[in-house]
Amino acid sequence: MRISLLTRLLDLISPRTCIVCGARLSPTEDIVCQSCLLHLPRTGFANSPKDNPMARLFWGLMPVEQAAAMIYHQPRSESARIIYNMKYAGRADAAIAMGRIMACEFAEKGFFDGIDVMVPVPLTESRKRKRGYNQSELIARGISEVTGIPVDTKAMERTAFSASQTSLTRWERQDNVKDSFSLNGRHIPAANRHVLIVDDVVTSGATTMACGSCLTSIEGIRLSVITLAFTKS
Ligand SMILES: [Zn+2]
Questions:
Q1: pLDDT of amino acid 185
Q2: Is 206 helix (H, G, I), strand (E, B) or coil?
Q3: Is the pLDDT of residue 72 over 80?
């Protein structure tokens, strides 16, 4: 990798540190140091994208061709710092960088073959304004930098308010988000395409499913799902 003079200069003025362990990053490292990157709790789902614990969440409920998450999400673990920082600490750069890293790892396995477009799970406008960005959209941007697959942020809107999901059971969660997405009438994606839904963390799969169900009204659509993290139940 070619390191720009600007990167080297910025490193001198304000050294970048690993988002997981806090160690100083070398100019070739991005967001996570080599050692932490090596030890992230990878799921291996991209090795069997049609049958894995995340793909099984959708079986019988939504037709999904492939589903994979890069890492397991274990609250309060070291790797959870990545998720925490991108969701609650303003680290938009972490979402983009992790999208890039995941794309490099999954592309080797042919995960993106045949995908036409990515649709990130939208946030409500008020949530997006508060956070300043939609982390799922930034993960998709990072993936796009590597794969060249376009990102469609206009296809869907998150309409209804849904309460925080954290204290709900799986079934309550599905009920909670069921009607909160809609297709944007002015920007409906073309028919007969393979759409990759991009999310940050999948736990029950309810949000992803609500989003996907909305897209299934498009003629001939095929769906796959990619998320940065998957919560082990
Ligand atoms: Zn580290």
A1: 76
A2: helix
A3: yes
**Minimal CA–CA distance to 3: which of 26, 32, 23, 24?**
26
Of 2, 3, 32, 36, the C-alpha closest to 16 is 32
Around ion ligand 1, residues with a beta carbon closer than 5 Å are 18, 20-21, 23, 33, 36
Spacing, Cα 24 to ligand 1 middle (Å):
8
Q: What is the CATH number of domain 40-161+169-231?
A: 3.40.50
User: Span 218-229, mean pLDDT?
Assistant: 95
Burial zone of 210 (CB within 10 Å; 0-12 exposed, 13-18 middle, 19+ buried): buried
- pLDDT (tens digit, 9 = 90+) per residue, 110-127? 999 999 999 999 998 888
Query: Cα(228) to centroid of ligand 1, in Å?
Result: 18
Amino acid identity for residue 5 in this structure: L
What's the confidence (pLDDT) of residue 196?
Answer: 97
Residue 28 has pLDDT above 80, yes or no: yes
What distance in angstroms lies between residue 39's CA and the mean position of ligand 1's atoms? 9
